[in-house]
């Protein structure tokens, strides 16, 4: 099972697991994920999509060998738009995913985040660093949701015997990022392609470490299979300033967009770089995609998304946020994994910004 499986990272993970012969149940409420991310998987005999808010409960018929828990708003724009939902999915959602793993004797992997380090005073950040987090700031809804999720995951490991793994994901990029999610890479790409000014926050000297999504997915799979408790950092240890990133993307796009500077958000980290010694040692993992190559693939995907029959550039740049999660309802005790008033049936149309998707259920 992959919760948040229709999201940016989750959809790539579903694809990878299917490619090696696994059966995959993808659970997503589409509050930030996109049905179009998994549209190409719907005819695969080993794939099943469940439209479900994981805070309401999780169940699936048949055996479950592994639970990858990715469900959560992950970009600042999304978790600031959905603050309570972010806290609930980090608490109730994580508990429900852990309970599913416990009932089925399945391995469990929590995708935590580099945001648990806050605005770090230790650089690069090792897993032993406890962080510098503002617990009541605007970003705290995400930071603290993930920190609580880590604590709950370790409690289930220690007291309930669940085989758990925690990974802390650093900045990741690649195809299927939403243009409107507010993160730097999709913002710079869509602005460059549209000939709009590139909006760099602060003076652009703040750094991020960008890992290509295929490399990250390899790390996720290795971490769960290794069974290490973690936490384990997964990210690219090479830093880039935001100004340099904007200029690199502009060059790849062949754009003449100007760079403009806007105020930095509150509690925005100045430095972000993982120490991946543990991943190298325990997983034999390190990212292998050069930034220029990964950005070129990402730009090519966005260009294709802007081709005839897909979203236009203005729609990409100015697209509206996706709907909030379905209204919470009590699920009938006898309902199956696709039952409930908000679950799609055969022929239902799901939210698909890139076109119309006709859902087929097993």
Automatic annotation (TrEMBL):
Keywords of this entry: Decarboxylase, Lyase, NAD
Domain named NAD-dependent epimerase/dehydratase: residues: 1-235
Organism of this sequence: Streptomyces sp. 900105245
Annotated spans, Disordered: 316-362
Protein name in UniProt: UDP-glucuronic acid decarboxylase family protein
Reported cofactor(s): NAD(+)
């Amino acid at each position: 099972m992959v919760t948040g499986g229709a999201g940016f990272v989750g959809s790539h993970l579903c694809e990878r697991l299917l490619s090696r012969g696994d059966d995959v149940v993808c659970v997503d409420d589409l509050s930030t994920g996109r049905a179009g991310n998994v549209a190409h998987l719907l005819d695969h005999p080993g794939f099943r999509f469940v439209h479900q808010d994981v805070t309401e409960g999780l169940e699936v018929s048949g055996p479950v060998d592994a639970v990858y828990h990715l469900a959560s708003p992950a970009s600042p724009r999304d978790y600031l738009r959905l603050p309570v939902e972010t806290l609930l999915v980090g608490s109730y959602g994580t508990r429900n995913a852990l309970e599913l793993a416990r009932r089925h004797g399945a391995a469990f992997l929590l995708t935590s985040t580099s945001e648990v380090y806050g605005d770090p005073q230790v650089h690069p950040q090792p897993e032993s660093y406890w962080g510098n987090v503002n617990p009541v700031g605007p970003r705290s809804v995400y930071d603290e949701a993930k920190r609580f999720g880590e604590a709950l995951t370790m409690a289930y490991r220690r007291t309930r015997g669940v085989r758990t793994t925690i990974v802390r994901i650093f900045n990741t990029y690649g195809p299927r990022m939403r243009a409107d999610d507010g993160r730097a890479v999709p913002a710079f790409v869509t602005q460059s392609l549209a000939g709009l000014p590139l909006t760099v926050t602060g003076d652009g000297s703040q750094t991020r470490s960008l890992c290509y999504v295929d490399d990250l997915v390899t790390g996720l799979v290795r971490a769960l299979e290794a069974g290490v408790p973690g936490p384990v950092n997964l990210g690219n240890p090479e830093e880039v300033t935001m100004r340099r990133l904007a200029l690199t993307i502009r060059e790849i796009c062949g754009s003449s967009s100007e760079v403009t500077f806007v105020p930095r958000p509150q509690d925005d980290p100045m430095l972000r770089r993982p120490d991946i010694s543990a991943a190298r040692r325990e997983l034999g993992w390190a990212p292998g995609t050069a930034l220029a190559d990964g950005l070129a693939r990402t730009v090519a995907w966005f260009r294709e998304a802007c081709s005839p029959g897909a979203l236009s550039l203005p729609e990409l740049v100015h697209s509206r946020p996706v709907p909030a999660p379905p209204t919470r309802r009590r699920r009938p005790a006898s309902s199956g994994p696709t039952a409930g008033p908000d679950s799609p049936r055969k022929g239902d149309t799901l939210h698909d910004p890139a076109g119309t998707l006709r859902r087929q259920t097993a």
